[in-house]
Design goal:
Elements: H1 21-26, E1 33-35, E2 52-57, H2 61-76, E3 80-81, E4 90-95, H3 100-119, E5 124-129, H4 135-144, E6 150-152, H5 160-169, E7 174-176, E8 183-185, E9 196-200, E10 202-203, H6 214-217, E11 222-223, H7 226-238, E12 243-247, H8 265-273, E13 279-283, H9 292-298, E14 307-309, H10 317-323, H11 329-342, E15 347-354, H12 361-374, E16 378-383, H13 401-424, E17 430-438, E18 445-450, E19 455-459, E20 468-476, E21 481-485
Parallel strand pairs: 1-8, 2-3, 2-4, 4-5, 5-6, 6-7, 9-12, 12-13, 14-15, 15-16, 19-21
Antiparallel strand pairs: 10-11, 17-18, 17-20, 18-19, 20-21
Bound molecules: S-adenosyl-L-homocysteine (SAH), iron/sulfur cluster (SF4) and FE3-S4 cluster.
């Protein structure tokens, strides 16, 4: 970090190693280096004094959590946060590349920010996150949006303080996107809010599902050392957090990259089970690596919630094969059977893609029948979106757009029906909820979640926020249930 060119030097150069999709596929078992020496350089600690930043976050929880890390660093530099873009001195777009419409939103926002930048030339505009790892996107920004001041990738987040300094003094766009992806940076500051916290347990993805851009934008699979994860969880427990969600693109592959120890996701969950933090969740589980040990550990319940997000993507074994998901319809159903046997009240949710290249009507009907058979409580449903450089993008996409839309519509209708049905089952029951805050529309109504992650609204006072209470479900809707507080049921938060 010390030998970076000084921003004030005339011969300031853009340092840029473009990401290569072909190379990503070849990545081997290079050693994962864990760095424990992160700190904000002394000279940059007052850099943001009197200045404001705004970060707009797109995409998944991984990105949300990266935003918390960036906020942590900016806070330590003396910046203050704002939600008002007119007030902001730094605006960062933390982007998502998962589908075309995610990228369109960012390019749309850049269009709006152009005039803001013209009015306030001192404004620093940065693009980071998954889109910055795509060569085509970086080139497009450099050519069509030259007013952007900085672009940095998902492996360079810890470099934000230095890059911000460079961008402030440089007349050229600062671009730093590392293809190198073997490192884990510990001890990054994080600005967490509320009673729930995200905890990264691993980075990257090695599954290379044929439709997916993530293995390229997030790099190879690498797990944080168990002692680092456990120390972070203990620290969050001490600080009074009520719920943690362990994050990884495929948490069930946790530990598979350790060469010196045998330690799996099941082992990690078992150790976290013993820590005094009330609620533990995780996302996302790939069905392929979901083993019996993990099922057994989860069946102990306690602080391990009986909700599993288990993306199936398709109910057709042929489509699953083309997606390279490495399991069949039958294999998935067998896994669900085993999970239900061990945890009878488990709630399962999923992700589904419709209109994958070549998907026939019959194959789509297999998805519909699988959804009914499993009885998911809810699902994120998507129309397939070709991503440049992925194997599926080269497959013949012969499903007409209207058919894709029709399939999505039918699937969503089915999911609405299933969600309502499963909520109806709660009617009259008393459930434990964690109160997260006031509802968005009415300050007298509190918003809470059941152990199974269902949204519950009930009338209550602000002092209940951060506490676990019992409510009786009195009314059900499709996406939420309404309840009444059971008196004397408050379980203290800390
Ligand atoms: N790692 C997670 C998924 C992360 S991406 C997993 O494997 O379960 C979240 C979801 O986006 C995926 O589950 C998939 O349903 C969807 N998705 C990914 N790529 C897509 C694409 N090219 N088109 C449409 N949906 C996609
Ligand atoms: Fe994408 Fe598949 Fe990895 Fe999930 S497991 S991030 S869908 S490649
Ligand atoms: Fe999007 Fe990157 Fe997450 S592509 S879904 S933000 S890992």
């Amino acid at each position: 970090m010390n030998n970076q060119p000084k921003a004030t030097e005339k011969d300031y150069s853009i340092y840029f190693q473009p990401p290569s999709l072909k190379e990503a596929k070849k990545r081997g078992k290079e050693e994962v280096k864990v760095h424990y020496d992160f700190s904000i350089p002394e000279s940059l600690k007052g850099f943001g004094e009197g200045k404001f930043y705004m970060i707009r976050t797109y995409g998944c929880q991984m990105n949300e959590h990266d935003t918390e890390t960036m906020k942590g660093m900016l806070d330590l530099m003396g910046f203050q946060s704002t939600e008002d873009k007119l007030e902001a001195d730094v605006i960062l777009l933390n982007t998502c590349a998962i589908r075309e419409n995610a990228e369109d939103k960012v390019f749309g926002e850049l269009g709006h920010l152009k005039s803001l930048k013209a009015e306030k030339p001192s404004l620093i505009l940065g693009v980071c996150g998954c889109m910055s790892q795509e060569e085509a996107v970086v080139n497009r920004i450099m050519q069509k949006h030259p007013f952007v001041d900085m672009i940095f990738g998902t492996h360079n987040i810890h470099r934000l303080p230095n890059l911000l300094q460079d961008a402030t003094f440089s007349k050229e766009m600062v671009v730093e996107v590392w293809s190198k992806e073997g490192d884990i940076i510990e001890n990054l500051p994080k600005r967490r809010e509320g009673v729930r916290a995200w905890v990264n347990i691993m980075y990257g993805c090695d599954k290379f599902c044929t439709y997916c851009i993530v293995p390229y934008t997030r790099g190879k699979e690498r797990s944080r050392r168990p002692q680092d994860v456990l120390a972070e969880v203990r620290d969050l427990a001490r600080k009074g957090f009520q719920e943690i969600t362990l994050l990884g693109q495929n948490v069930n592959a946790y530990g598979k990259d350790f060469e010196d120890i045998e330690y799996s996701f099941g082992d990690l969950m078992n150790d976290i089970h013993k820590i005094d933090i009330p609620r533990v969740r995780f996302t996302t589980s790939h069905p392929r690596d979901f083993d019996d040990h993990l099922i057994k550990v989860l069946s102990q319940k306690g602080n391990l919630m009986e909700h599993i997000h288990l993306p199936v993507q398709s109910g057709s074994s042929q489509i699953l094969k083309k997606m390279s998901r490495k399991y069949t319809r039958e294999g998935y159903l067998e896994l669900v059977r085993k999970i239900r046997e061990a945890i009878p009240d488990v709630v399962l949710t999923t992700d589904i893609i419709v209109g994958f290249p070549g998907e026939t009507d019959e194959q789509f009907e297999e998805t519909m029948s699988l959804v009914k058979e499993v009885g998911f409580d809810s699902a994120f449903t998507f129309i397939y979106s070709p991503r440049e450089g992925t194997p599926a993008a080269a497959m013949k996409d012969d499903v007409p757009e209207s058919v894709k839309k029709e399939r999505l519509y039918r699937l969503n209708e089915l999911m609405t029906e299933l969600s309502k049905k499963s909520n109806d089952k709660l009617l009259g029951q008393v459930v434990e909820v964690l109160v997260e805050g006031e509802s968005k529309t009415n300050p007298d109504v509190l918003s809470a979640r059941t152990r199974t992650n269902k949204l519950v609204h009930f009338a209550g006072t602000r002092d209940l926020i951060g506490k676990r209470v019992h409510v009786r479900v009195v009314e059900t809707q499709t996406w939420l249930v309404k309840g009444e507080l059971v008196p004397d049921s408050v379980r203290t938060a800390i």
